[in-house]
Amino acid sequence: MKQLISIYEGYLIDSIELHEFLKIKTRHRAWVERQFDSFEEGRDYWSFAQNWAKPSGRPAKQFFLTVNMAKQLAMLAKTDVGEMVREYFIRVEDRVNKLNKLKETSESLKEETKLNLESFKKLDNAGLETLYEGKVVKDKNAHMISITGRTFAQELTKHNIFGKKLTLEEYIEENRKTHLEIREMIIKNSNITPEELPLFQLKKIDLKKGIE
Questions:
Q1: Distances 187 to 132, 178, 190, 197 between C-alpha atoms, Å
Q2: How many CB atoms lie under 10 A from the CB of residue 115?
């Protein structure tokens, strides 16, 4: 999935970047005042005062929107790129949902193994290292294929260990095995290794320095 607009913290969109990409003709502040009325601050978007002021003397504000709100604004824009941006955000939403599913699966596996946090991290890292053959790839940056594969691998691990009382090393070995199966499946069907799949780049919000 080609990234059209930067994604901050995994699910937020900067309103200025969206405004520019949608080619909105009205000024950003006027667009915000007109379009944000039907959305709820703290749920659909967040505003932050910056440490610099506008020429008018009023404090500048920085707005970050949820992917869902950004998708709706793209639909309302009625510009030549509006539909393309909307489709992009639909895919981003799908990505967020798949990441949430992976987190749920991970929690379910942790509950099944009854491992403490430190031990479960060892188990999970063993799966990651196997899937990417030693390369460090965080789930939040992973390709959609890898995210789906990780979820399936953990589901397989949970199925294979169900009702068994194993040692930590045995749990780890089982998780390695399922992640290896998924790795081989990805290579067979995509002719590319998981570590070669393009990564999803995320940016961080720095409220002191502004956008990085």
A1: 11, 14, 5, 10
A2: 18
What is the rounded CA–CA span in Å between residue 36 and residue 46?
Answer: 11
Residues 30, 64, 96, 128, CA torsion sign: positive
Which residue type is seen at 113? T
pLDDT above 60: residue 30: yes
Residue 115, pLDDT score: 95
Q: Which residue stretches of the chain are H helix? A: 15-21, 28-35, 67-77, 82-113, 117-131, 144-161, 168-190
DSSP summary character for residue 116: -
Q: What is the pLDDT of residues 176-187, one digit of tens each?
A: 999 999 999 999
What is the domain partition of the chain in residue ranges?
7-89+202-211, 93-196
Distance CA 63, CA 68 (A): 14
Please give the Cα distance from 108 to 137 (Å, whole number). 22
Neighbours of 97 (CB within 10 A): 10
Residue 179 class from Cβ within 10 Å (0-12 exposed, 13-18 middle, 19+ buried)?
buried
Sign of CA dihedral 126, 130, 131, 137: positive
CA 2 to chain centre: 14
Q: What is the pLDDT of residues 33-47, one digit of tens each?
A: 999 998 999 999 998
